[in-house]
Write a structure and sequence with these properties.
Blueprint: H1 5-8, H2 13-58, H3 67-160, H4 163-236, H5 239-254, H6 258-269, H7 296-303, E1 309-311, E2 316-318, H8 329-366, H9 373-408, H10 432-437, E3 456-459, E4 478-484, E5 489-494, E6 497-502, E7 506-508
Antiparallel strand pairs: 1-2, 3-4, 3-7, 4-5, 5-6
Length: about 500
Amino acid sequence: ATMGWGTRLWDQEKAILAHTDNSADFSTRVRHFVHAYAQIQQTFAKETRKLVKQYQDMSKKDDASNTAVRAWSAMLQETDDMAKQHESISENLTTQVCETLKNTTKEYKTEKQRKFAEFSVHTAELDKQRKRHESAKKAFDKASKDANDAIARVNKAESEAIEKKIDKARLERDKLAMEAQQARKDLEATAAHLSQVQQQYYSGHTVEIFDTIERLEADHTQALGRYMELYAKTIRDVLPILTTCLDNIDKEAKAVNGSGDVAAFEDAYVTGLHPPDSSIVVADPTCTSPAAAVHVHQINERRVKSSKLFYTTTRKKDAVREDFGHLPPEQRRKALQKKVLELEEEQRKDQKTVDAMSKTIEAYTLNPSLGDAKTIEKGRKEIAALQSKMEKSKLTKEKFQLYLSVLDGTDPPPGLCQDAYDDEDDADDFDDEENESNTDVPSEAGHSSSSHQGPRAMVLYAFPGGKEGELAVNEGDSIAVLENDGSGWIRAALHGREGYVPLSYVQLQ
């Protein structure tokens, strides 16, 4: 648009002043709104993350293999990620919109006030010249009147023919005529100067000042538009991330498998045993070793006992093995599968964190105002630590995958290293003290397990006994129970061999 305030609005000083004051107030209101909205975003993010943390802590004991639990965990994590984006909105609105808009409005008001102050100086000068002209005009009018009155007095004196009065009247007339002539010259001079000042005022100063104020107003209004665009962009920039978070929630929610979860629960707790015979057997009181009825619920109770060390007179052994070898085959398979899923989920979370932190570092690098070099370096160290953790987690997962393949008798998954099966923690289940004291254990190797007169047990599942101190048995073997302290393992003998067998693999007789 053509600049026209200086020529078209030359007489609208008050309107221009009121308009520009309102414009400054308007930009202040816009800034206050953006600041308040940023605070709301910050509070929302803080309360949301607090809520997510509360429910994540409550869900730590949930079954991670359950599809609904996995969907729930994903929903909590993605909600936390979305809250972080609201924090980003708050920070960017505060630094990129509020602060810069505040500075822009301050500069606008300062320059506007300076131009109006300059306009006031020129207006004061014009008013001064107008007053001088008015004074000169009044003086000229008075001198003209006095001169005319003197002429009238001369005419009167001449008509009366009084020589003395005529001479006096003529002298006064000539004097007043000269004063009137000087007053006229003064009036003409002030009129000329006033014309010059008015010309400069209306055609020079007013045009320059009002046109400058018009440009300031146009630039300020345009800046407001840009800040509103930045406001929208700040929110729009996080929408793809929010959409991704919602898509991840949707994906996990669609993966919920109710029938699969109930089947997994069934598989996790099935014992493989048959219900007890409905016939009641009356024990012979004359028998020195009566057979004890073993119920399914008793076996289940043994399997859920807390892990503790099994103490004998000379050795100790862990009741729970890392490879879940203390569990029956089917439960061991489920436990190994669950462990693999947990490790995969942990890897996914760590990878997601690494990706998010990498994007943040990239943003900080492109826009240094968002983060300094110290913050970027700290983020890189955290990424390196997570990557190291992920590598260890990968090796651990491969180890459990190999445990699973050995149990199933299948080839390990492609790309797995057999070395992952070897773990220094599994190398020896006995400490130095027990190794030194093994010689003190009374040996029963010379006795046949079939001639053992103590309690016996029937083997329900084959146990390979791959570690030192364990006894390998096959399904259906009858073994002699040498010691049982309820830790989850029994010391048994079979065909002259002695060692430990998981209590859940046998049925005591």
